[in-house]
# Entry
Amino acid sequence: MRLVRKSMILLAVALVFGAIRMPFESALRGELEKSGLIPRELEVGTKQKLGQTFAAVSLGGLRTLVATFYNLRAFSEFTEQRWGDVARTFDLIVTLAPHTRYYWETGYWHQAYNAASYYINEEKLPAERRREAWRESIHAGRDFLERGIRNNPDDWSLWANKGFLLSDPNKFPAFRDQAKSFEEAAEAYRKAEATGRALPYVKRFSLYALARVPGREDEALEIARRFYNESERNHTPTLLSLLFVLEAHADASQDMEELAVRLFGTKEKAFEQLGTHWQRTRDRFPVYGVAEALQRLGKDLDIPAGENPLNQPLPPPPGPDQWFSQ
Amino acid sequence: MSQAATASASQGSHTGRILVIATHAFTQLMRMKVFYFLAIFAVIALASNFISLPQHEGPESMGSNVLSQIKSWSLGTMTLFSVVLAIVATALLLPKDIEDRTLYTVLAKPVPRFDYLAGKLLGVLMLIFVSLALMDLLMVAVLQVRTSMVLTQQQEMATALGWSQGTIDSMRAETEALGPNWSLQGAVVAVFLRSAVMAAIALMISTFSTSTLFTTIVSFLVYFIGYFQADARDVYLHSGEAGQGVLARLGSLLVSLILPDFQLFNVIDTVIQGGVLPLDVFGKLVFVGFYYTVFYTFASWFIFADKEF
# Structure
C-alpha cells in the first residue's frame, strides 16, 4: 500500500516538474531547429527507407557515422552504375547529414554528370529513351543541388556548383531556355562570391555566364572592365576575349584591330586568342567583332587564308541531337 | 568499503560522505577493467585518420573530409561507450553492494541514503568523465595533427596558384572549423550530459528493480523512447489540429512530462559537420542536463529512502 502511495506521489511530482520544464524544452528545441543545430524530424517516408537503421540514426552523434556507411554503399552502387539506387542512397545520406557539403556535391555530381554521361553511351537503350534519361539525370542532379543550397544557403561551393552545371556546354542543352540557364548561372556565381569565401575564379565565371545572356551585354561589359582593371591575374584568355566582344558590341564602329591589340598586347597574341575564341562554338560565347578583327589581323600578319580560323570549318557543337541521333 | 573509509564517511559532512562513496564506486568500477575500451577507441580514432574510404574528393579539399570522418567516428564511439557505461555500470552498483553485503554495512552507519545514492552516481559520472576526457584528448591530438597537415597542403596549393590573402584566409577558416575547437568540446560535454542523465535514470530504476538485467533493459528502452519525447510533445501540443483521440493525447502527455528530451543533445551532429555551438545554447543544454539529472536523483532517493532490505 505504501509503495502504491509513494509511486503515486512520485508520478505526481514527475508530472509537475515535467510541466515546469515543458515550455523551456519546447522553446529550446525550436531555437535549435531554427538555428540549424539539430535537424528537423525525419519524414515518415525517410524513416521507412532507413528501416532498422532508423533506431540507431535517431540517436544523436551517430547520424553522421551512419551517413559515412551509406556513403560507402553509394560508392558501390556508383561502381555498378545503379543510378536509381545511387540517387536514393544520397537522399538518405543528406537527410542524415544535411550540412555536409561533400554529400550534396557528390550526390549531384553522380546524377548530373556520371549518370547523364552513362546514358549518352548506353547502347542497349533506344535513342529516345537514352535522351530522356540523360535529361532527367541532369534535372535530378540540379534539383538535388538546389535542395542542398536551400539547406546551406551560405555555402559558396554549392552555389558555384550550380553555376558550373548551368553553364556547362555538355549540360545546358538539357534546359529548354538556355539564355535563362546562363542568367541563373551568373546569379549562382554571384551568390557564391557574395558569401565572401569563394575562390577567385568564381567571380570571373559569373562574368563568363552573364556575357552569354542576350540583352545584358552592357552590364557584363561593366563587370569585365572592372575585373580587367582590378588585377593582372584576371587577364585570362577568356576574360580578354569576352572584354573584346563586349566592347565591340557596345561600339560596333570602332577599329576592331586596334581594340584587339590594345587588349591582347600584340597582333600575334590577339590573332591566336581571338582565333581560339571563334572556334569555341560549344560554349555559345558571343563573337561580336571577332570576324572583322581576325580578317584584318590575318592580313597584317600574312597568315595564309587557309590557316585563318575564319576559313576553317567550325567544330559542330556536340549536343543531344548528335549524341542521340541513332 | 574499508572500515576507516566507512567511519570517515559517517562522520564527515554530506559532501565529504558523498565524495568517499563516489571514490569507492569509481575504484570498484575501475577494477572491472572498463578502461580496456580505451584501447579500442584508440584504434578507431587512428583508423579514422589513416583508412582511406573509397570516395570522391576534389583536389581543392586537400583531404579536409577526413577531418569530419575523424570527428564522426570518435564522437559516435564516445556516444556508444558513455551511454552503455552509464546504464550498465549504474545497474550493477546496487545489486553488487547487496550481493557483497556492503550496502548493509553502509546503511547501518549514520550515512543518509541520499548521500549513498549521490555518491554512487557521482562515482559512475567520474568514470564516464575520465573516460571521455581521455578519448577527447586522443581525438583532439589526432585531429590537430591532421588539420595541420591539411592546412599546410592547402597553403602550398594556394601560394602556387597565387590566391589572394583574403581567399586563403577564408579557406583556412573553413578547414579550421572542421578541426579541434570549442564547439567540439561543447559536443563532448553534450555527450557527457546525456550519459549523466541516463545514469540518473538507471539509478532510479535500480532502486525498485529486481535484477541488473531488468534495470539495463528498461534503461535502454527509456533511452530510445527519450529520443521520441519531442515527437510525443508535438503530438500533445498539436493534437487539437490533428484531431487525436483522448488516449493518444494522454499517452503523449505522460511521455513528454516524465521522460527527458534526448534529441536536444543532437547538436553533436551539427558540430561534427563543422557547425558552431553558441555559448548561450551550450549553457541551456547544461541547464537542461543538470535539471534532468538532479530530478531523477531525487526521485531515486524518494524511492530508496525507506526501502527495506
